[in-house]
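Lab meeting, action items carried over

1. Structure of the two-component assembly. Owner: GW. Status: complete.
Input record:
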Amino acid sequence: MHTDFTPVASTLGGMIIGLAAALLLAFNGRIAGISGILGGFLEAGEGWSWRGLFLLGMILGGLGLTAVAPAAVPGAAIDSLPLLIAAGLLVGFGTRLGGGCTSGHGVCGISRLSTRSLTATAIFMAAAFITTGLLRHVFGVGGAG
Amino acid sequence: MKDRRSHLVSFIAGLLFAIGLGLAGMTNSSKVLNFLDLFGDWDPSLALVMGGAILVYAPVYRKLRGESAPKLADRFHWPTKQDIDVRLVVGSILFGIGWGIAGFCPGPAIVAATSGHASVLAFFAAMVLGMLGQRLVARQS
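Predicted assembly:
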């Protein structure tokens, strides 16, 4: 499905994400890596309560978006259930193995100029570009059209 | 009191994070896949999401890194790992493949799942299983 380039909304949205991560660091001294927050919450260890409250905030934010701007939270772009499940397993397993995702490595790690995070981000971006390109242009799947 | 305030900050940060993701277009997996498809109908929006986030976060980090403690906690929980190991490389490759298939990374998946669409819920449930599975494997090795 075609989507329009949204430079203003996407830059503003990004700045709000940066602000949220900055608040968490300045007040609580924590890194806003979502895979770490969800993964840590699921393990129910130390830091369970702040992670749970952060996730509760995300969920209420999502419910608010669903109510106010349902077009911002549509169903998945691809409709193959096996592919969605495989992708979910890969994202869950991979982010925990690699110690971070787009927020922890991508936003927070790059801002700290961490070599580990710069490397991780370069690798997952490259893997994603190659995967989407192959699925859409070689195998003819992947929500193009 | 400090604890209660820090918990409130966690909640507000999560709320803002979700709103930012929604406004940015990250919760629409078509938009993400159109960014990741360099040879199709390319939508460069998501580069600006990362740029906007770093624009705000990086100067705050630079100001805070010299300080001894955050406002409402005893210390900063800075990441301690420094080395590029096999786990980082393999994990990032697997994550990138999954992201490239479906167009959801963890944050947007959580937010989008609240819409109740079965397709997003299926992705989210599999992602949670993948996270738990990784811990199981890590514990055994």
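2. GW to write a short summary for the group page. Key points so far: Chain B has six helices and no strands. Chain B touches chain A through 117 residues (CB under 8 Å).
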